[in-house]
Batch of 2 targets.
Target 1
Amino acid sequence: MLKPKAYSAKAYSAASATSPLASSTIPRRDPTEHDVQIEILFCGICHSDLHYARDEWHSFMPTVYPCVPGHEIVGRVTKVGTAVMKFKPGDLASVGCLVDSDHTCPHCQAGLEQFCPNQILTYGSPDKHLGGVTYGGYSDSIVVDERFVLRVPSNLNLAGAAPLLCAGITTYSPMRHWGVTKGKKVGVVGLGGLGHMAVKFADAFGAHVVVFTTSPNKKEDALRLGADDVVVSRNADEMKKHTGSFDFILDAVSADHDINAYINLLSRDGNITLVGAPQKPLAVSAFSLLIGRRSLSGSPIGGIPETQEMLDFCGTHNITADVEIVPIQKVNEAYERMLKSDVKYRFSIDMASLKSE
Ligand SMILES: [Zn+2]
Ligand SMILES: [Zn+2]
């Protein structure tokens, strides 16, 4: 295959696991016939960005440097290839964690590209067009196959819409899969970037939403986001009151924690789904699962059709993430603050700030 022509895009990249992100340029391909070129307006900052930039996932996905993170991308279409049907210049568009897949495996056939063994991640995957690896959204533009470009409802605040592409779909997908609807009792463990989205979705689905938190001072915020009740998880009496009562619990905690304390709160056939990834394996009591035929599972992002469904749902219910907007020049500082959970609840980079670099 002939290599497509490339142009030079502005970006913020890390040169090594220990160097801060800094201004640079990267090659992007000129749109081929099925491609959409997007001017990036906002890009959310996800924990994965930091893990990747610092090569913390070395054992299963070693980082190739220079690396450009960012997979919560919202922008405006600037150019489309000759065969593109869904987009035209000027349209709002977004890109999440995936930019390609094999399109032929059973998962892709089912619209579940998040399980495709040949999926191409937005950053750090082999780039079949230009060689090297794919570069993410900390950039002024990106070029993506139209099958992986999503429409953005025009009523949504764009800075707040960016995190929907990872934090949003990661929490929306398991709730849809496990049947969160009106009348169900749903728990959300951990009120961070993922957890706050889970509260908004569960509330919009009509569920009775209970937030579990270690910090009592998050109570007011949890209620504002849509929770019906807040339980301080360190309070054993408070926890006990909810034993055997939850249809579904979404666990968004990435630190070590006692999972059995939550499994015991599930009702018969209740499910708890992990979307956080603690480094240390969790100790699961078989008894907690046996009693009540409860289940424990995990869930990664979502497929392309479901991501579009989620964005449309957000348009209808006017749901976006609560964000703090930062210029790209503050991205390293934002990483440090994210590590301390010092953000309500997601950073969104205003990519106009890249113009001055
Ligand atoms: Zn992410
Ligand atoms: Zn596939």
Note: The mean pLDDT is 96.
Target 2
Amino acid sequence: MPYFSKSSKRNLAQCHPDLITLFNEVIKHFDCKVICGHRGQAAQMSAFIKGNSKVKWPNSYHNKKPSMAADVIPFPVEWKNLKRMKFFAGYVLGIAQGLFNEGKIYHKVVSGLDWDADTILKDTTFKDHPHFQLIPPIKAAR
Ligand SMILES: [Zn+2]
């Protein structure tokens, strides 16, 4: 069974409990790596300058404490394998929906491939393949 590396665990620990629950379930079935949890001011500025984020500090979901977003990619890492990242994103969203339906997480989850969660990908102008974020609470967070 796949398991998280130390750096993945450290990054995931910076995230909201719902993201921790979600990816601790995902990793049982689909090997992956958490490349980013919380982003401080300097890291957010760097991500913005590099074009990896469209927003400045403190407007990213990664800037919240705990982080309301996690960047997670399938393992082994293949940045150019966008099909596999899309495959992974669909897998994550399916697991997330199941956990939400079972009351194990309290937020719905959105992928950076489908920000408006309409399941249509061609209307997504900024595709952030590894990005998953929580939709503001339906119920009060724990
Ligand atoms: Zn992200």
Note: The beta strands are 32-36, 69-74, 109-111, 131-134.
